[in-house]
Structures are given as C-alpha cells and as structure tokens.
Amino acid sequence: MRSQRHATIEALAAQLGVSVQTVRRDVQKFADAGVLARFHGGVQLSESTTENIAYHHRETLESAGKARIARAVAESIPDGCSLILNIGTTVEAVARELLKHRDLRVITNNLNVATILSANEQCEVIVAGGTVRPRDQAIIGETAVEFIRQFRVDIAVIGVSGVLEDGSLRDFDLREVKVAQTIMSQAKEIWLAADATKFGRMAMVEIGRLNQIDRLFTSEELAAPFPALLKEANVRCEVASEAGIENPSVSAA
Asked: Are residues 95 and 202 in the same domain?
C-alpha cells in the first residue's frame, strides 16, 4: 500500500495470492490502527497531515521491527554516557533495552521513558518540566524547551512521525516539534530510530533535515530515493533486519 497508495480488495487478494476474506480481515486491522482508510470495494493509505495514529495502535504497529531497532540502538550506546530520549513508541522500546546499562544519565520529555528507566538503579533519569499530553505522556511546550536548553549530552535518540522524499523529518504537533528541535541542538550526535513505515509518510510540521542526523536505525532496507538521500546527507544507516544488523551506508562506501 505504501507503493500503490490505493487498491481494490480484489486486486490485493490476487496480488498476494490469498482470499478476499483474508485481505478484508487484515485491511480492517490496519484501518482500526488508522494506517489505512476503507472505501467501497477498496482501501487507500491514510495520509492525514494533522493527526497521528492513536498511541495504543502505535504501540503494536511494527512492534517486531521496533524491537529490533531498539536492540541495535542499545547495543551501540556505551555505559557511562549521557542521553536525551524524546517521544515515541520506538524510543520507549529503546528505553526497555537500556535496563541493564550502567552509569547512564538520561534526560527525557517522555514520562513513559522515565517510568521504564526508573527500574534501572544504575541510570539517573532527569525529567523535563512542561505540559503533559494525556494521550501518550509526552511533555511538551516552552517550559520543556527551556529546561532542555540547560543540558549538553553525548547522544540524542529521537523518533519522528515521517521522513519525506525531500529529506525532511516530520511530525504533527508544533509544540512537540519545538522540543525535538531543541533536543537536536543540545546533542553531540543525533540518532534517529525510525521503522520502515515512517519513510514517505507525511506529517504537517518539519522538525529538521536528514543531514542533521548522524546515525539512522531502521527495520528494513529502504526503497528509493532514501538510500541516495542518506548517502548524500552522510548518514550512517543501520538496518536491524531479522538476519542481524546490516550497515548499507558503510558497505556501499
């Protein structure tokens, strides 16, 4: 659906070699999650630029890919470093993988991340002040921006809602974006954790550009034009596939 944008149920069944009933059932799951939109006899990609998918659906969407990304990110984070972790279910998955790390100092504007990492006695967690967004426990607004400006960290691990073909990183809430931009400005290295569904996905507000990212962790090999964009932006791309970690940017070099 990411490549075709819209299709009939019958065409999908024929293309995938399964029954119409199977396609209807699977399409309904994606529609319930807000990823696809149904129309009479078919389905299309849901492309709202103003509203993200509901948090409880995002928790389960691409969960296996997010888990692989999280393990890859955590394996790359050394003990004894300072981090900022922002908003998103992929970033929360990273937090779970850090529970055995030692001597970390983590600043976050995500109450879910703070709750997860509070179980690690070897991790100091510092929570930004600001307005709590009820649907996902994110802390947003100018107070959070001013708080984060006090820090300079080794690594910022960030999530986004979309990465477009023009190289822009996108999200839906301007208040969240302002905090993310501040986080990016306060880190020596910026690591983007984004599963393959985020590429080509539109959201209203620009956070930044690919050339601001140092490392990208994703779940699948990316389709054109993203490999070329990453190479041009000098982003180290690590694909956390089921077979293990691949680094196409290094191998291409």
From this structure: yes
Exposed/middle/buried for residue 100 (C-beta within 10 Å: 0-12, 13-18, 19+) = exposed
Instruction: Name the percent of the chain lying above pLDDT 90.
Output: 71
Place of tokens 């426990």: 137
In the block, residue with structure tokens 């569904």: 197
pLDDT in tens, 199-247: 988 888 999 999 999 999 999 999 999 999 999 999 999 999 876 666 6
Confidence (pLDDT) at 251 = 38
Query: Domain holding 14: CATH number?
Result: 1.10.10.10
Whole-Å CA distances, 234 to 75, 191, 209, 226: 22, 13, 12, 12
The two structure tokens encoding residue 157: 């691990």
Is residue 207 domain-shared with residue 243, that is, in the same domain? Answer: yes
The DSSP result for 89-139, as a single string, is HHHHHHHHHTTT--SEEEEESBHHHHHHHTT-TTEEEEE--SEEETTTTEE
In which element (H, E) is residue 43 found? strand 42-45
Distance CA 205, CA 171 (A): 5
Q: Considering only 23-32, 116-125, 180-189, 213-222, which range has the smallest mean pLDDT?
A: 23-32
